[in-house]
Amino acid sequence: MNNQYAEEARRRFGETDAYRESEQRTANYTEQDWSALSDGMDAVIGGFAKLNTSGVTPDDEEAHLHVRKLQQFISDRLYTCTDEILRGLGQMYVADKRFQTNIDKHGEGTAAYIAACIESCCA
């Protein structure tokens, strides 16, 4: 994890099962593992950006399948990502400008689109 945000994450989420699971699962990650994780997440987010620019609405089955792809990606690499956790992530993607700015590098409005897709899928 990027050291810049590690302490903040520990303060905010350190008491949760998901945080503990993530710490345990990533304890031996190499720089290459972290890079692959970042590249994979960029690919998933890029997929949302393409759906958004293609006019796929957040309530469309294709958007929901991509939400589940995101959820599985997180679950496979970091922690068990429940619908509740995923909804919280979607909200954070738009509430925290750092996330929004990073995600919107894939296309203007991508963060809000992902949040809407997650909300529609996990409602």
Named at the architecture level, the CATH assignment is: Orthogonal Bundle
Query: Can you give the helix content as a percent range?
Result: over 70%
What fraction strand? Answer: under 5%
Shape: globular
Oligomer: single chain
CA-based gyration radius: 14 Å
H-E string: HHHHHHH
> What is the CATH fold-level name?
Globin-like
Q: CATH first level: which class?
A: Mainly Alpha
In the CATH hierarchy, what is the superfamily?
Antibiotic binding domain of TipA-like multidrug resistance regulators
Task: Jot down its keywords.
single chain, 123 residues, mainly alpha, Globin-like, 76% helix
Short description:
The protein has 123 residues and is mostly helical. It contains 7 helices and no strands.
